[in-house]
Design brief:
2 domains, Helix Hairpins
Length: 228
Amino acid sequence: MTEATIEAKKDFRDTCDHRGAVTEIKHFCSECGKIQPIAAGVDYFGFFNLPRKLQLNEAELEKSFYDLSRQLHPDYFMSASAEERQASIERSSMLNDAYRTLRNPVARAKYLITLEGYKEAEKKAPPDLLEEVFELNMQIEELRAAKKTGDDDEAADARSAIEETLGDLNKKLQEIDERLSALFGDWDSAFDREATADWKKPLLNRISDLLSHRSYIRNLVRDIKEEL
């Protein structure tokens, strides 16, 4: 956001008859009803007036999304001032981005660790999966070779072995999701008791590592399905 844009937003807020008095969700002035520009530093959680937690009530989130969609849609501001129309466009855009991110638990976790100062970890194989990945690569090469030579029996054997590995990988994904769910609960408890950064950092590290492992396995599963 440029300095000029920030200044324009500030000027618009200062021209509100009630100096930007806001409702609980901070989208409109509570006195004159004018839609407000997005304040600097507002994140997706704050946009929905939610704490930075990882276990959200997705039904309530969906309801809030549709309620805000009706309130913020640019069609309702066609006859408003240029500043209000722009605020509507920006809020509608952020609403869609925020909902798309927060409604998905994995995307929500990735977003939160970014807010906490983490970059998305490099996608890497879980240590206990390295041998299995090596064997999988061998199986894929065998399948490719069998297809090339037209050996249907060899191809069937290789495909069967790969499908068995695919089943194991899907089980590992389920295990990772269960571990993430438990860590999400730990994070929310830490948030509620206002835990120190020293306590939260190792928790974020574990979440980040699991997200990395999950991304790696999902990409592997996708590649296997394409090969099959």
